[in-house]
Design a protein that fits this description.
Layout lengths: L1 H16 L5 E9 L4 E9 H11 L14 H13 E5 L2 E2 L1 E9 L4 E9 L6 E6 L10 E8 L2 E7 L5 E5 L2
């Protein structure tokens, strides 16, 4: 009987342990040779799939779609609408390179920003997944020359300026 009670307790506890963190992590690095900022964006795949499911009917597994599909084109447009970079008060162009889903359900998007007027000072606007959770945090690390600075963006503060001397 104790085993049954313990088993049932664990089964009911699992949904509450399923998801406690709502975080994206962007690693940005300035490439002086190409005058662009390279970005690797990491998030939980099933969180982003909820965004896609709001647009498309049915359950979506993003790893099953290649870049030419309507689903991925929508994902790219979502990135462009919710992750923006400004340099010298001008919006930089987001150029999508690809995606990857790991066995641990991590989703990586790879892209660059071009038209960088002043890489030493950038404004970041990141509202990714804010519609899914008011606990969402979007961490951005930006490496310029030999320094790295970080910001954490939340629904109450979705933009920040990173400046290097």
């Amino acid at each position: 009987m104790r085993k049954l009670v313990l088993l049932l307790s664990l089964l009911f506890a699992l949904p509450s342990l399923a998801h406690k963190f709502y975080v994206t992590i962007a690693e940005m690095e300035f490439d002086a040779v190409e005058n662009r900022i390279k970005v690797s964006l990491k998030m939980t795949a099933h969180d982003f799939e909820h965004v896609l499911e709001d647009k498309f009917d049915g359950h979506i597994h993003i790893e099953k779609y290649d870049d030419s599909t309507e689903v991925i084109q929508y994902a790219v447009n979502y990135l462009k609408d919710h992750f923006k970079l400004f340099s010298a008060d001008k919006q930089c162009d987001l150029n999508y390179l690809g995606k990857e889903v790991t066995l641990q359900d991590d989703l990586f998007f790879y892209f660059t920003f071009t038209n960088i007027a002043d890489p030493s000072t950038v404004k970041i606007v990141n509202t990714l997944l804010f519609s899914l959770s008011d606990q969402q945090q979007n961490i951005v690390h930006y490496s310029y020359k030999d320094q790295t600075k970080s910001v954490t963006l939340k629904p109450a503060q979705s933009e920040a300026i990173i400046s290097f001397e």
